[in-house]
């Protein structure tokens, strides 16, 4: 095996977590290989798509560590924009709506109160919501919170930028499916036609993580879930200023579907609203792109028609996405319990893109034998231990 096949670190998975991590590692002087089963950047996995909305306020319970990582990541996105020559991070607004008595809005209001003056500045009564957002059909008992610190990330442009920077710094990219990992002081990674050795590896394989975790002897199951996205053109009568038209992301809890229904203003297909809804669980990540869920499509169309009155009647088109969730909907970040030179960064549970700056910092700290800035005990894989977690 030639010296070119040996690395300080091999990162497996070229989505947002793997790409951010690989760039930081190569910038730290470590010879780094980035492996993905598809030519990157690509439109597979949970990092696909043109845009992502990232809000500082959340409707889910959050620990102090999660809040710190979320706040640091938002600051990192602003810094990244300052260092690039193209627009990849756009100031935006996120609107949370719902009954003040439901858990989701209770968490939203608690989250807002953690920031000075946010609650007073952002809270919207029912009448204020109706006056400020006449395009949204607001239930009589709803209140809202407008997060004006949110941003819209141009996700595909960010991935292209990270990959280009990684290569510019001397990073190597390999396309191939990992078929086996042989653990030891030096790790051997086998793909269809190649073998690589590395002192340390990072697992950032998103929805394809279950097979690799099993290969590494870890009895941890990640749930893969189909997400359908619909794009609706905004009525011409609403586009009074053309490109200057803006509209917040809208997040609303659905008791019936036990999930958040969210929409995001986007411009990759002209001024549109992108509306998402989660669907079938435990889908095959190799087949999700061709899924045709008529019931899910009907749900999205019904929600768009009932909630918004500034959209065209029919969607421009629909597309599929896929997420991977841990059992408790928290990340899995940390060392492999029996192989300290294997670092896990999986199970992002729909939060990975927005928090990828902080998550990749943690992974790099672990690779470089530094203590992370954050207390990551709640994210370690051994929290799922029932008897012997690792069968190696």
Automatic annotation (TrEMBL):
Transmembrane segments: none annotated. GO terms for cellular component: peroxisome. Signal peptide: none annotated. Its cofactor is FAD. Residues 8-366 form the FAD dependent oxidoreductase domain. The keyword DNA repair does not apply. It is an enzyme of class 1 (oxidoreductase). It holds the Pfam family DAO. GO terms for biological process: L-lysine catabolic process to acetyl-CoA via L-pipecolate. It comes from the Eukaryota. GO terms for molecular function: flavin adenine dinucleotide binding; L-pipecolate oxidase activity; sarcosine oxidase activity. Coiled coil: none annotated. Its EC number is 1.5.3.1, 1.5.3.7. Keywords: FAD, Flavoprotein, Oxidoreductase. Belongs to the MSOX/MTOX family. This is PIPOX. It comes from Mytilus coruscus (Sea mussel). The lineage of its organism: Eukaryota, Metazoa, Spiralia, Lophotrochozoa, Mollusca.
